[in-house]
Design goal:
- The protein is α/β, with parallel strands linked by helices.
- The protein folds into 2 domains: 83 residues, no CATH class; 277 residues, HAD superfamily/HAD-like (Rossmann fold).
- Helices cover 52% and strands 13% of the residues.
- The chain contains 15 helices and 10 strands.
- The protein has a 7-stranded parallel beta sheet with strand order 4-3-1-7-8-10-9, sandwiched between helices. Strands 2-6-5 form a 3-stranded antiparallel beta sheet.
- The chain starts with a helix and ends with a helix.
- This is Thiaminase-2/PQQC domain-containing protein.
Length: 382
C-alpha cells in the first residue's frame, strides 16, 4: 500500500494545481480532491512511517528485498493506469499519438567534455598539463561570464525576440571560437591515443536515465524516428564510444573532431560545431534532409546557452539540467519556460476543446523537465 498511497497523493496534487478551482464539471474532481487532501497526505505518511519502523530490524539483504517489492508495486500501479481504456484522443505518449506514416527526429545535446587526465600527453608533463588545464578552465569561465553580462541587461522582452537573441548569441559564437583557438595553441590535445579516447568515452557518466532512454527508443518498433546528437565537444569519437558502450549505435553524432596521425592526435581540431549558429545550421541541415520524404515532428533536448536557437526552432524544445545562463538569456529575450507536465495538460485541453493540437517551432515556449524519466514518459509512455 505504501507506494500506491504516495503515488496517488503526488499525482493528485500535481493535477489539483492545474484545475480551475470553481470548475465542478470534472468527472474525477471528487477523486482528485480526496487524494490531494491533507488528510490523505497524513495517512500516506503514517503508512510510510510504519514501514520504516518495521524495517529497522531487517538485514541489508532483507532491505534490498523490500526495496525491490516497493519498486515492483509502483511499476504495477503505473502499468494499471497505462492499460486503462481512454475514451478521447490524447497527445501522449508521443510514440503512440503520431500517425505511423509520420516520422520524428529527436535531437539532443549531451554535456560531454574530453578530459585529458584520462590519457597520456607525450609533449607535456603532468604538472604542466594540470596547470594549463586549470588556466584554460579559469579563463573560459571568467570570459564566458563577462560575455553573458555584456548581452544580458536592460529591459526584458515581453514576447520572443528571436532576432535579438540571435544577434546576442553572435557574441557567444566569437567567444567560443577564441576559446577553442587557445586550446589548440596550448597543445593540451596533442598526443592522445584514439584507444584511450574511446576508453574514456566508455567510462563517461551520462545524466541519469539518458542512456536508458536511448536504449529503449532506438528499439521501439512503433516509432519511425531518426536520432542525432549535436555537441560542442572537441571529439566525436569520445561521444560515439560513450553511447556505443551502452549498445546504442544508431545515433548520428555531429560535433568537432580531433585530427590523428597513426591514431595519435596532432593537437588540432576539425572545427565543425563551435557556436550556437553552427549548431542551428547543422540542425536545419538535418531537417532539410529529413523533410525530403515528408515533414517530420522535431524534438530537441538540451540545456546550455548554445542550444537555445535549436530548442526554439524545434517543434518541441525540451530543457533539461539547464544552466543559469540559459535561463537568464531566455528570460531576457522573451522565452517562456513551462514545466512539461503543465504544458501537456494545456495541450490536452486544446485537443479536447478545438479538436486539434499542433506543435510548432518558434512559439517562444520551451518545456522544462527535471529528469529523463519525464522525457521517457512523454515520448514512450510507461
Amino acid at each position: 500500500m505504501a507506494p500506491c498511497m504516495r503515488l496517488y497523493s503526488s499525482i493528485s496534487r500535481e493535477i489539483q494545481a492545474l484545475l480551475v478551482p470553481d470548475d465542478r464539471s470534472h468527472i474525477y474532481k471528487k477523486w482528485i480532491d480526496s487524494y490531494s487532501s491533507q488528510n490523505f497526505e497524513e495517512f500516506a505518511f503514517q503508512i510510510e512511517d510504519m514501514l520504516d519502523k518495521l524495517s529497522i530490524c531487517l538485514t541489508g539483504e532483507e532491505l534490498e528485498v523490500i526495496e525491490k517489492l516497493y519498486h515492483q508495486a509502483m511499476k504495477l500501479e503505473a502499468d494499471f493506469f497505462s492499460t486503462q481504456p481512454i475514451s478521447q484522443q490524447t497527445i501522449v505518449p508521443l510514440a503512440r499519438v503520431l500517425d505511423p506514416a509520420e516520422e520524428i527526429a529527436i535531437i539532443t545535446a549531451p554535456k560531454a567534455d574530453l578530459d585529458g587526465s584520462e590519457t597520456q600527453i607525450t609533449r607535456m608533463s603532468s604538472a604542466d598539463l594540470r596547470s594549463t588545464w586549470n588556466f584554460l578552465s579559469t579563463q573560459y569561465a571568467e570570459e564566458f561570464e563577462h560575455c553573458m553580462e555584456s548581452i544580458v541587461g536592460g529591459r526584458q522582452a515581453e514576447k520572443l525576440d528571436y532576432e535579438g537573441l540571435r544577434n546576442a548569441l553572435e557574441h557567444v559564437a566569437e567567444f567560443e571560437k577564441r576559446a577553442n583557438t587557445r586550446v589548440i595553441n596550448s597543445g593540451v590535445l596533442k598526443g592522445l591515443h584514439l584507444e584511450d579516447i574511446n576508453r574514456a568515452g566508455q567510462r563517461l557518466i551520462l545524466q541519469e536515465g539518458c542512456r536508458e532512454f536511448f536504449q529503449k527508443i532506438v528499439t521501439n518498433d512503433t516509432l519511425k524516428a531518426e536520432f542525432h546528437i549535436l555537441s560542442y565537444c572537441w571529439c566525436g569519437d569520445f561521444i560515439r564510444s560513450a553511447f556505443s558502450s551502452g549498445g546504442v549505435d544508431e545515433l548520428e553524432v555531429h560535433s568537432n573532431e580531433l585530427t590523428y596521425e597513426e591514431s595519435v592526435t596532432t593537437g588540432d581540431i576539425v572545427r565543425k560545431v563551435e557556436s550556437p549558429m553552427e549548431k542551428l545550421q547543422t540542425f536545419n541541415d538535418i531537417l532539410n534532409e529529413c523533410n525530403k520524404e515528408g515533414r517530420r515532428l522535431t524534438v530537441y533536448i538540451g540545456g546550455a546557452v548554445g542550444d537555445l536557437l535549436c530548442l526554439l526552432q524545434a517543434d518541441i524544445g525540451i530543457v533539461i539540467s539547464s544552466t543559469p545562463s540559459l535561463r537568464r538569456l531566455g528570460d531576457q529575450f522573451g522565452v517562456s519556460f513551462v514545466p512539461l507536465f503543465s504544458g501537456l495538460v494545456k495541450k490536452q485541453r486544446e485537443l479536447v476543446e478545438d479538436g486539434s493540437c499542433d506543435w510548432k517551432g518558434l512559439s517562444g515556449i520551451l518545456y522544462t523537465v527535471t529528469s529523463w524519466d519525464e522525457i521517457h514518459a512523454f515520448i514512450l509512455g510507461s
